[in-house]
Amino acid sequence: MGGNLKVIEAENVSYDYPDGSAGVRDISIGIVEGDRIGLIGANGSGKSTLILLLAGLLKPTKGNLRIFGREVDKKNVEEIRKRIGVVFQNPDDFLFNPTVRDELLYVPRQLEWSDEEMEKAVKHYAEIFRIEHALDKPPFRLSGGEKKKVEIASVLVYRPEVLLLDEPTAYVDGKTRRLILKILDDFEGTLIIATHELDVAEKLADKFILLNLDHRIEAIGGKEILKNDELLEKAGVI
Question: Is the pLDDT score of 199 beyond 80?
Fold first, then answer.
């Protein structure tokens, strides 16, 4: 996809689930520092699987995957995860701490931030996500939209260089959706967003990877992909 420093490189990457079902097939892409990638495709095309692979959370069944120039292994996995943030489609798969404040502080505590740094970060992200009122509440008691905001805030708080998101605007109301889109639009690192919502992809990304229902790449390109109804229909998106 052009540029200089590749933060993620996949060469003929495939992934099969333990039951033998296909996750993705023959994926070859290079994601450059500062890229804003929209990963689009129908439900079942492999978007979520590809997000987990690109984040280093799944190991390819076949092919080679390098993150920051290295294959993920036991020696470097912790360092890589400090530099990459992942937002899952379902916040309940992510949130596990006793309170929202603890969610926001979980990674900064692992990174041994000072009390002053942590307090400043909590205040900032609680304010921009409008969750000040929820800081002392258990996450499981929040609405779906509030959970999503807490999940994204808990990732952004430690300032990852690369942010991968799986359907970040799914199942939220219009007000929350607008807020999330504004915050993600302001994110200054490398952004990879998996979504079936073409308007979300168009707003947040300028390069696109279209997956088809065979779990393969149908097309890679710019915003012309979003305007190509024949291509989108072939991939099962519309």
Answer: yes
